[in-house]
# Entry
Amino acid sequence: MVRDPSTAAASPSATIQFEAADVTGTHTAVADVQRSLPASAVVDSLVKQMALPENVPYALRDDTTGAFLDDQQAIGDQMTDGHVTLTPKTHLG
# Structure
């Protein structure tokens, strides 16, 4: 879980809770993170929590909407509680 210690006493609305899985579904995690965290920080934490290779770039896909989250934007601005998939970023060609 990713938590900002400066907001440890934050209200429940300051956090977002969701389930995450890798593309194979074999690695899963439950996250409770500050809504203001950039998606990239959440990705880094989930990769470590799921013991996935850290030398691979990943993206988060909101399973409700099918949209890929912007790494630089706050996660709380891009999704609501739910489920995301941690997807390796691939570039073909």
DSSP finds one helix and four strands in the chain. Residues 5-88 form a domain with the Ubiquitin-like (UB roll) fold (CATH 3.10.20.90). Residues 3-10 have pLDDT under 50 and may be disordered. The CA atoms of residues 19 and 30 lie 5 Å apart.
